[in-house]
Design brief:
The protein has 77 residues and is an alpha+beta fold. The chain has helices at 3-16, 31-38, 42-55, and strands spanning 29-30, 58-65, 68-75. Helix 2 (31-38) crosses helix 3.
Length: 77
């Protein structure tokens, strides 16, 4: 079984037993979404988001979306 398929199966198994999944919430975005909306390269978006997280503008958390582990970003409150 491929890794992506395994993670997707794991996500479904976790959802079945009612444990909160690591999916993206409505107030979050991914590096790829940020890059697309700002017309930045992925590496440029990664650097910019890392800088903004260090400044305390955004916070990030790790999660799984579509079987891939990635960071989700949201504004600090």
């Amino acid at each position: 079984m491929k890794t992506k398929q395994a993670l997707t199966a794991l996500d479904r198994a976790i959802a079945t037993i009612g444990i909160n999944s690591d999916g993206k919430r409505d107030d979050e975005f991914t590096m790829r979404e940020f890059a697309q909306r700002t017309n930045m390269s992925l590496s440029g978006a990664k650097d910019r988001l890392a800088s903004e997280v260090c400044k305390g503008v955004y916070k990030s958390r790790s999660g799984i979306l579509n079987g891939q582990r990635m960071n989700f970003y949201s504004l600090c409150e």
